[in-house]
Amino acid sequence: MTAAPGRVLTVCTGNICRSPFLERALQAELDRSWGPGAVEVASAGTGALVGHPMEDQARALLEANGYAADGFRARALGAALVADADLVLTATRAHRGKVLALHPRAVRYTFTFRELAHLVASLTDTDLAGAASAADHLARVASLAAGERGVGVPLSDADADIVDPYRRPPEVFEQMTTQIMAALPAVVRALGKP
Question: Where would I find the Phosphotyrosine protein phosphatase I domain in this sequence (predicted)?
Answer without folding.
Answer: 6-190
